[in-house]
Amino acid sequence: MPDLDKTLTIDKILASQSLAEEFDDEDLATIGQSVWDGYEIDELSRASWLESMEEAFELAMLVMEQKDGPFTKSSNIKYPLLATACIQFGARAYPNFVKGLDVVKGIPIGKDDEAGTKVSRAERIGEHMSYQCINEMEEWEEDTDKLLTILPIPGCVFKETYFDSGLGRNVSAFLSAKDLVINYYAKSMATAPRMTKIYSLYPNEIEEKMRGGLFLDIELDNPQSTMDNNEEPPGNDPDQPHVFLAQHTYYDFDGDGYKEPYIITIHKDTKRVVRIVRRFEIEDIKFNEAKDKIMRITGFQHFTRFIFMHSPDGSIYGWGYGKILTPINRSINTNINQLNDAGTLHNHQGGFKGKGIQFNRGRGGGVVKFTELGEWKDVGFVGDDIRKQLFPLPTHEPSSVLFNLLGFMVQAGDRLSSVSELFSGEQSNASERPTTTLARIEQGLKVFSSIHKRLFRAFREEYKKLYALNARFLEQEAYYTVLDDRKAIKIDDYKMGDCDVIPVADPNELSNTQKIMKAEMLMERLGTGLSDKEINKRWVEAMQFPDAKKLLDAPEPPPDPKVVLEQGKLDLENRKFAFEVSKHEITIDESEAKIIKMTADTIKALADAEAAEVGPQLAIYEAQMKEIMEERKMKMQERKEKQSANNGGGV
């Protein structure tokens, strides 16, 4: 680390909002050169990876180029293997991570109180952060869509998450791997010594930052570089953007031997420092017990890495279809073009013509084209056989071996990218049972399941950054809207720190077909003892109905009028029966009353006996109960016979 003429105290660093103003030109030049040297080291370490990614992106973009071999304007077809794989992956992943208005879920940490305060706070945080992502952060949803489409090619992309004081809100923007320079062999994002973001600003944007105090007010010459190092900047464009390097690095500005985390921004062409800002606050500093030495500073990490697959060489940039499918895609393109060129040569024959034959186009002859069916051309020739003056070039029809090889390469590419009929929306066996189809889908998506779990972790990390920014920069009370219902959340909800945030996505369910099939299976279990409310909820969510919450929160439906009418009739019949019974004086004689009392006493004694397990006493009570029941049965029969006689023999 180069020595500086001036050092700053930690209190001065924390109090200053523009650290670049604290240093003179000589120190700023030293800092700028240090940033540039680190950038060049990291850029050189990933040079071969960048070269391979350029070819992969050209294949995925289906860049058309004129090809003049083996003949002029010969075939140069680009088979969309990489493009199809990216489209298929993005189409499956995007609906899983962006489910309507719900993208973030709050999870309470630890035990909640009886009032459910922690659970309620977690629900508010999930709703508010979902509102921020979908509605307040205008770039978030589109950049997420872009991220999931581009990610499969390089195998790694990034998001930069920060609070924009000018916009007054959080920002979480997409950043391609090409525009974030990290040492290729860095172990992790947390331990990388520096990360350099390459970005451009138009002259008017630069002026705004200078006037707002974010950049030093310095004179910048006409730009000499562009975002793409292979392109030359136009010479006379007054609005051509300037390229800047914002390096998230560590520097010892207080001279205590421990480097603090900063963001140092330099102008790429001049290497002049335009901004220095810290990446930490006082609460991020950990002191020793004596409070006289800094033990550690936890800097805010702005970048979140979204990785497709881990690279076999341990690279920080990971592995994607660009590495796996590029050789196969290149071979497929070669085979297709060779087959097409062979068919073209065979269908448009040419060859050698003897001097003794003329086609009425001068002494040298020329090209003869047949434009009508049944057309005959005059030929200036005197001889026994015109065929002796013409020798066609020996050409062959497209090779069947090459065609079979092409089919093999396409199938191999489809297997590697899992772009088969079943996963692209086509069903090869219409009579297949749903459970078998579900099993096939899950088996085929095993590789995607691991990729989605990596994305799940990355989105969770991004949401944690947004959570931390809300805890620091949110207003004391912020308002948001959920389904036309205006709600409020306080900064204290985030500062409590007793809630976690995760994506609402389920990494184990990658296809909507899986969700629908599982929901349909659950619907068959309605009324079998499982929670009908939960079954209906999962079915509605799987069907992705708009405003699903309104369906689930609907009031109980009114009773069926037919059922009400039948119930009324039944009540009326019961009243009639009760009235008829009251007209007859049904008396219970004294002997039957005694029987009822004896029955109750005996039942009580039986219960006590069973509870105490008295042995022989239990058998005595059971015998008495049997005798009482027989006597009661006889009394009831006598009463019925007496009533029958009083009614004249009727019942």
Question: Short description, anyone?
Answer:
The chain is built from 19 helices and 16 strands. With 651 residues, it is of the alpha+beta class.
The amount of beta strand, in percent, is 5-15%
How far is the N terminus from the C terminus? 114 Å
Arithmetic mean of pLDDT: 80
Content-based structural category: alpha+beta
User: What percentage of residues falls in helices of 4 or more residues?
Assistant: 40-55%
Extract low-pLDDT stretches: 419-426
Structure annotation, total helices: 19
Q: Shape from CA axes?
A: flat
List the helices and strands and how they pair.
Elements: H1 10-15, H2 25-45, H3 47-60, H4 81-97, E1 104-108, H5 117-136, H6 140-150, E2 156-164, E3 169-175, E4 180-181, E5 195-201, H7 203-211, E6 242-251, E7 260-267, E8 273-278, E9 285-287, E10 294-297, E11 303-307, H8 321-324, H9 326-347, E12 351-353, E13 390-392, H10 400-417, H11 434-444, H12 446-473, E14 477-482, E15 485-490, H13 491-495, E16 499-503, H14 512-523, H15 532-543, H16 548-552, H17 561-583, H18 590-612, H19 616-646
Helix pairs in contact: 4-6, 9-10, 14-15, 18-19
